Structure formats: C-alpha cells, structure tokens
Amino acid sequence: MNTLKIVNLTVKVDDKIILKDFNLDINSGEIHVLMGPNGIGKSTLTKVIMGDPTYTIVDGKIYYNNVLLNELSTDERARMGIFLGMQLPMEIEGVTNADFLRTALTTKEKENFKLYEFIKKIDKTVEMLDMKKDMIHRGVNQGFSGGERKKNEILQMYMLNPSFIMLDEIDSGLDVDSLKIVGESVYNYYKQNNPGILLITHYERILDYIHPTHVHIVSDGKIIKTGDYSLVREIEKYGFDKTNSKKVNSIGVCAIKEKIENE
Ligand SMILES: Nc1ncnc2c1ncn2[C@@H]1O[C@H](COP(=O)(O)OP(=O)(O)OP(=O)(O)O)[C@@H](O)[C@H]1O
Ligand SMILES: [Mg+2]
Questions:
Q1: What structural domains does the chain harbor?
Q2: Is the CB of 54 inside a 6 Å radius of any atom of ligand 1?
Q3: What's the gap in Å between 40 CA and the centre of ligand 1?
C-alpha cells in the first residue's frame, strides 16, 4: 500500500498564503477528484507535492510512504514514484521526447533499463494514445497543440510507471475522441497498476471514464467538503464559473457553502 499524506499544509507564493491547514490522505487504489474555482490553489497543491521551489511551505508536512517529502528534490520525489501531469505542460527545447524519457528511466532503473523494451513500450503507448509517430522524436512538447501536450503527459505517465499520479486538468483542450482515449488510458493504467490518483478537473465528463472514489471541494485554502460522485452533480448544479470572474466564482462557492451549512 502506497500512501500520500498531507498534514496541516500551509503554502505561500510571493508572500501570499494560498493553502492553509490543508489536509488530505490518498492511498493506492483511490481516485480523489479535487474541484474548486479558478485561482483557489489546486495546481499549487500539485506543484508543492512535486517539490517546485517557487512555492514555500510555511507549515505542515507531506509524506509519501511515511517518508517526509518537504526537503526532497523533485527528482527524488519522481524516483519514489510520484508523477505530475501538468495543467500547462512546458516545452523543452532541444531535448526529444524519446531522449527525455530514456534519460528519466535510465536514472530511475539504472542497470535494469532495457532499450528494446523501452522502444517497444513507447511505440505501443504512442499507438494507444493515437499520437503521431514522429512526436517521440520531436522536442518535448515543441510545437505540440494543447491536446497533443495533454496526451504527451499520459505518454510520460505510462513510460515512467508511477505509483502516485496527479493529473491537473488533463481533460482541458481535448476533443471528444481524445478525451475518451485519455480517460480510458488513465483508467486502464489504474486498473493494471493500482496507483493512488489525484485528479483535478472543472468538468464532469472526464469522470465518465475515470471513476472517482472521493470528491473534494477546495475553498479558502482547504478542503471544505468531501463526498462521493454525487458531489460532482452538486457542483455542476451550483457551478464554479468558467469565465474566470472572481465575483461569480465566490457566488458559486457561497452557494455551496450555504448548502453545506444548511445540511
Ligand atoms: N508562481 C506564482 N507567482 C505568483 N502567484 C502565483 C504563482 N503560482 C500561483 N500563484 C497564484 O496562486 C493562486 C492559486 O493558483 P493555482 O494555479 O494553484 O490555482 P488553481 O486552483 O489551479 O486555478 P485554475 O482552476 O484556474 O487552474 C492564484 O491566485 C495564482 O495567481
Ligand atoms: Mg490550476
């Protein structure tokens, strides 16, 4: 059993507190969905778990399998099996997808790395994701469309074989066919490998493919409500604004808060 444990986490960026006393436990075999309005700190959480130095942990602890992550580098966390599929995947100029993945895997697997197996797996995964074959020989995400970048994150996920997976808006920018391919690919990986998953989304449709065991609403820097899939329906009904307007966002959250208080 692999466990990610977040205890009373308070995080700041640019002297602004984003997460405050945030708590969450995710075990292998669990799929946790995190929902909440724009700018509330969902991506911040994933980056802090991954060890992005832009974000400062003011207080609290993050453990993976009882190992304290707070002071570990991103690289060390990745080697422990933690993976982040980013909301906005970056371009890496001059490094091809294949070289990037080969380097990551040789570092992780050392003498156990087998080039032939690697090529076989990458070809199979590219085909499964319906990606263009030449993409593995292009610079990482260089000139990739929004949807292609999202598929590339899933290619990395399959190749790196993580035990804890964070997917930050993996559904944004995907057309309906790609959404199905990505959703089914993630769920098949889950069925085969039993990882813990933290999935961030604004929309219900990805959950047709990736069935959550827990659903959380984030507001004011922490989880304000946890439920099962039916909570997603509630959110759909009360809504988090998609137009990036703070005013409407806070109305959406207020409506949910009010409903929670009345229960
Ligand atoms: N590097 C940074 N520098 C300054 N502010 C930042 C930085 N990263 C995040 N923030 C701020 O922290 C807040 C939380 O951002 P975050 O990206 O975590 O939101 P989110 O919940 O993922 O939103 P969305 O649903 O739009 O993706 C925002 O106000 C954002 O502007
Ligand atoms: Mg985000």
A1: 24-54+72-262 (3.40.50.300)
A2: yes
A3: 7
